[in-house]
Amino acid sequence: MSLNGEWSSNTIGSFDVAPQFYKGENFVSIELGDTGYSAGQWMVKIKKDKMNPLIKASFKHEIISDSEAKLICALVQYDCSGNEICGDYLNVHDDYLNISLELRENADYIVFEFLFYSFGKAQVKIYPENIECKEKEIHRKVNVATTCFKRKFTNDCNDNLTEILSILDAASKDENKPDIILFTETAYDRGIVSCEDHKWITDDSVPVKRVCEKAKEVKMYVIFSFHEIENKRKYNTDIIISPEGEIIGKYRKTHLIYNELKAGMVPGEELKVFDLPFGKIGILVCWDQWFPDATRELVRKGAEIIFVSTAGNPECVYKARAYENWVYLVVAGTTNDGHMPSCIINQRGDIIAKVSDGENGYAVSTIDLDEHKYLKYLSFERGYGANLYPVDRRPELYGD
Known about the structure:
Blueprint: E1 6-11, E2 20-23, E3 28-32, E4 38-47, E5 54-65, E6 69-78, E7 84-89, E8 91-93, E9 96-102, E10 109-118, E11 122-134, E12 141-148, H1 157-172, E13 180-182, H2 206-218, E14 221-230, E15 233-241, E16 247-252, H3 258-262, E17 273-276, E18 279-285, H4 292-300, E19 305-309, H5 315-325, E20 328-332, E21 343-345, E22 351-354, E23 361-368, E24 374-375, E25 383-384, H6 385-392
Parallel strand pairs: 12-13, 13-14, 18-19, 19-20
Antiparallel strand pairs: 1-4, 2-3, 3-11, 4-10, 5-9, 5-11, 6-7, 6-10, 8-9, 12-23, 14-15, 15-16, 17-18, 20-21, 21-22, 24-25
C-alpha cells in the first residue's frame, strides 16, 4: 500500500555518521553506518476516526545487518493537546509486525514509531501492509475452570474416573458454566496404590472414551491427563477433548523428573499452541513450569492462556510465570495448601479463583482475552504488558 499519513524521521542520539533515511513509494528505510552503535527512527501520524476507534495495522520489515540489529515498533496515543496517553508495542511474528487495538476515548491521534538500532552497519526496510480503522469488536470472553479432588489411595483407578465424571457433571450445571476445564497431572491414576500394571492406557482406551463421552454430554472442552502408552513408549500426556467428544490436541510432558526417566518414560518433543474458537492456549505439565523458557516459548507462539496440570509446585512459581510473561495461567493440583494449588491466575500474578481448601470440586473464572491491562513504570510508560517482555528481550545475551 502507499505511504498514507504524516511521515517524519529522527536521528536518535549523536553519532559520527548520521543515519540515512529514505522514503519510497511503498516503503521507508533506515541505513546505519559501521562506526559502532547508532539509531534512527521513522514515525507516521494518523488522525483517530472517532466513529471507528479500533485500529488494525500490519507492516512487513526486512533487516540486512552484519551485526546485532533490532527494530522496535510502537503505537503511541495522544490527546488533542499533544500529551502522550499510553503506548503499545506491535506484535512481532517473523517478518511481520501487527496490532489490533481499541483506542482510548480521549485519544485524538496516534503515531506509529519504528526505532532501529545496530552496533554496526545495518539497514531496515518497512512496508506498510494495512492500516485501517474499524468499529468496536465484541470482546472474546471465556469461562475457564480448574479442578481438585482428594487422592483416594485405593487400588482402583476407576475411583478417580468416577470423581472426574462427577466434577464434570457438577460444573456443567453451574450458572457460570465453564467453556474449558482442566484436570490435574495424570488424574486417572493420581494417588492410586499399586496400579503400575494398569495405569498405562492409550488414547482410545475405555477410560479416555468415557471422559470423551462426558465432554460431549456436558458440551465443554476438557483437558484430561493420564499415563499414556503408545507403541510400547510411555508418556505423561494431556489431551484436549472437544465439546463434540473428539480428541483435538495432545501435549506430552517435555521436562521429565528423574524418577520418570528411570521408569522408562519418554519426554515430549514439542511445546505446542492450540487454536480454539475463543483463543490460543498452551499446555504444560508440572516440572515443565519450573523452566521459564517453556512458558516464554508458548507465549512467543501466541498462547493467551496456559493450562498447567501438576502434582505440586508452590504458588509463587505460577505467579511468577504469569507476571513475567503477562499471561493467564490455569493450574490444577491435588490440594490447596499453597504447595499443590488448584487456581486461576491473571497476568499480574493475582489468584482470581481457587478451589476451596480440602474440598473436591472446581473453580471458574471469566477471562476477557481482549481486555488490555496496562502496566506503569516499565520500559514503556503505561505499556500493555503482553507486548513488553518479548520485545525488550535480548536473547543474544542469554547464551542459548
